[in-house]
Amino acid sequence: MKKLFFVAIAAVGLCFASCKDKATNEPAAAPADSVEAVVEDPAADLQKALEANDSSAFQKIITTVTEKFDALKNLDGDALNKAKEYIAKAQAFLKENAEKITAFVGGNSVISGLLDKVNAIPAEAIALPEAATGAAADAVEGAKDAAEGAVEGAAAAAAEKVEGAVDAAKDAAGKAVDAAKEAGAKAAEKVGEAADKAVDGAKKALGL
User: Is the model's pTM score more than 0.85?
Assistant: First the structure.
């Protein structure tokens, strides 16, 4: 009975050991926040290769840049934008560190050829959508400003015309009033003259 008890304990111990070994050998699960891939930074990788004087690593990165450029025609969406961003960063680094890179490359014709290919990539070929969006936004803003200016100019011109019309109406009304006054004065003068003549006639008739 005791033997069976010890055999059972030994079996349980082996089972725990097996589970422990299995848990140790299995890779740890990646934390949830590390699942999202980080955008590659060729500039940092190229800088490390330069500092380490590692021509092999440098050539590998430049080769990746040319491969990404050749693959642009087969990409779209986010993958296309990331590839363009990668190429643009690498190209900017190469231009900023041209003298240092020339000294580093030396007579390596393979790397020189790859560098020529990368440096020859036109900016419009790797332009990101944000640049076009920004240009469109600027154009829209410019058109909006022009439209607002035109509206303000038209409003000012209309106000000036209205003001001019009011002034003209005022002048015309004033002239009409003056003419009426003058006509009234002349009419009153003529009435007075006619009355005087009538009085004179009446006096003569009466022998006065």
Answer: no
